[in-house]
Amino acid sequence: MSHTLEELASYVGGKVEGDAACVIENVASLESAGSRQLSFYTGGKYKQALVSTKADAIIISEKHMSLSSANLIIVDNPLLAFALIAEKLNPSPIVSGIHPDASVDPTANIDASAYVGAQAVIAAGVQIKPGVVIDASCVIGQGCVIGENSRLHANVTLNDKTQIGKNVIIYSGAVIGSDGFGMANDEGRWVKIPQLGIVEIGDDVEIGANTTIDRGALDNTVIGNGVKLDNQIQIAHNVRIGEHTAIAGCVGIAGSTTIGRHCTIAGGVGITGQLEIADNVHITATSLVTQSISESGAYSSGTPLQENAKWQRNYVRFAQLDDMAKRLKRIETEFKDKQ
Amino acid sequence: MSHTLEELASYVGGKVEGDAACVIENVASLESAGSRQLSFYTGGKYKQALVSTKADAIIISEKHMSLSSANLIIVDNPLLAFALIAEKLNPSPIVSGIHPDASVDPTANIDASAYVGAQAVIAAGVQIKPGVVIDASCVIGQGCVIGENSRLHANVTLNDKTQIGKNVIIYSGAVIGSDGFGMANDEGRWVKIPQLGIVEIGDDVEIGANTTIDRGALDNTVIGNGVKLDNQIQIAHNVRIGEHTAIAGCVGIAGSTTIGRHCTIAGGVGITGQLEIADNVHITATSLVTQSISESGAYSSGTPLQENAKWQRNYVRFAQLDDMAKRLKRIETEFKDKQ
Amino acid sequence: MSHTLEELASYVGGKVEGDAACVIENVASLESAGSRQLSFYTGGKYKQALVSTKADAIIISEKHMSLSSANLIIVDNPLLAFALIAEKLNPSPIVSGIHPDASVDPTANIDASAYVGAQAVIAAGVQIKPGVVIDASCVIGQGCVIGENSRLHANVTLNDKTQIGKNVIIYSGAVIGSDGFGMANDEGRWVKIPQLGIVEIGDDVEIGANTTIDRGALDNTVIGNGVKLDNQIQIAHNVRIGEHTAIAGCVGIAGSTTIGRHCTIAGGVGITGQLEIADNVHITATSLVTQSISESGAYSSGTPLQENAKWQRNYVRFAQLDDMAKRLKRIETEFKDKQ
Q: Which pTM value belongs to this model?
């Protein structure tokens, strides 16, 4: 799998500066790249690495090209060009067929071009479309539908009737379609409310390792096209996530909350239930969202990290904050009265 | 599976207002319900949906009955009545037998009425009581006991000797009985402390997807009857959770902490180790609990979400809070001295 | 499995006070111990339990020995001695061979002394060294290497090419080597960046249940020797964790952050990406780290838990903190001008 720099530049709509016939076999980081390897530069703290890299070629934007003496592919968005070329040079192997150690219900409908790995379980009525890869030990519950070219890595669990779009990637340990956490209280005892909805996953979605997405209570939980979910995210019943929103690891979203399109939610954020979050909202790490957000923009909560001894003193003061505010108001008033 | 409104009202101890012979086939949300469907109303923001619903019948409390012109089942607790009727109209299918692709140790004792799914592993000495369902790919370690009518969804792991009560539901990816995080420090190196206790789960417990409950170090980790745990919760060794306490997703509880009965702990809460939390304590989302709580009531920590630019300014000031408090005190004193 | 107190004292380099011939069969907590059982005391709140224990013998330090009338093993570090003796009295059973229900690729190289459990999947080119235990339903991806005497509990997933050192323990549900969360943005749509690095795990590492460690993007994700990771931790691509660092449950570490040696990170901490954390840094529970830490020491963020009604008042004031700071400054200035 090797290409000339010219071919790769053409593939991403860039232009070559330097030796267009230079042969590239793979991509690498600036620090580790060597002969026949291509790296990329997006600015910032990697400037020294750019100068000292042994990469044969660099993907770079026009404004940074003077910083490098290597062969260059010049594009507007070097990271995007890098992503596309890295994929071209490292295509996923094509596999098909059903491993003899898989357990497949005779009523499942599995396209001949799809793959089902060892120890996987495909239950009754499942539909698996062309080009799908179901890795080892996945469990696909009754009536699930998995769209074209989607890939489930090992040990993914889809509960009954989950619908997965096209070109979806689900990583190991993810659980889609478990019952939501719905209960009625009967004089102190909790009574389960049956969870009768499903999970609908759009096209081009990624779902990280050990992420959980609960089925809807009555209506469905819906993940829009192009949504990217990192690892260890919890998405409760009847949440709806708008298209092209990206959510980092360890985020929890409570029941029936709707997230807009093109949002970014950083790691560890909590979002309580029944909220409406607008499009293009960006929430910084470990913030807690307890009210709907109707305006796009960046939002945060939390306090700064300090050395423990200093923090202790401020931490204690937080509990006196209302008192401090009242005292400040009082002294302002008294001082003014004195004038 | 259809019933008259009269039959359903009688089942939940309610009374019918309207057409008692109305035939109901299933439940649905106010927004999506149609002919032969029953919905419910508990007040609040769904008032408009109640007015415009096409449901044939509504479960409602007496105080709200004038808001609807549909057929009604009138009860004191509409959500509870809904839960019971939804379950009646959507019973779990009864299954039994051992799937030929399961791997069952000959010394395991599995009741004939129980079910073991494909690729499941049942180790030596396991006892599985009547009516239990073990879904596909579960692993049940040596000597585990699973009480009557409990259900383990696909891909649950029970480590050795875990004891599960009756009518327990465990969702996919949950891991019960892993070793606790116990170590001694030997001049900078960590030495593992063997974890010799087990996990005891009471009756009527629910355990969410990808939740983890560690075995005790010497004594046991104990989850009381009726406890409900959402997804992605971490419960460390020797934690004890009192009966009918409900814990939402992404909560972490550190070692040897005891939680009381009838508590509610919202999503993302952290509770440090060795604490005692009283009965009827309610903790709001993402709070951190670092001291025992001896009085019932609601508790919180954390700061409000703001637009990032405003938050930045307050965030910086938090680190000056003790200084601000001292300065406020000083000016109060100086001002008073001036009087 | 029984030993005299003399033998056990000698094993941990301690000395006996009392009956050296006393026979010990196992360890237990102070509260539950009885005849032929050994417990330990490290001080603090267990003093009453020490006095009332029915244990035949206690591991204790010299300074506390006067508190107990039981037979004693006197050592400098009672917890460490307890860990070693508990392990000696409760050795892991030795197993070997390949369960007939495992699925093993013929190109895998599995040492005859290793064990592979039921329904486990061993892919092409895997190398499993002597003494390794792979429990039921684990999936070991292509080309993984697992070092001597390491143990993977049931349902662990290793993605392709993961390298595991010696004496490593990985608990159920852990996922090692999933793709990192790397994307380029193409006019609002996210394009996946192939994740071409691997995960390297050193020797003597523990990885908790449902913990996830992503493979590197170009270079590798590296977990140093002796690192201990609790449950439900998320470690992103290209993170590097220094030797003998211990991390408690529910911590999230974002991409390309480097953590030093001998650090302790408490539960629920978030650490953002691209940071450098020095050696011997200790971070308290649920803190958020957004900047590099160059000095060893203890660090914290967050606010205290309060009764909800009191907290509400302080919570609201947080949003006014910058305004309060400015008003305080103003009145200080005005007051000074008056002097």
A: 0.97
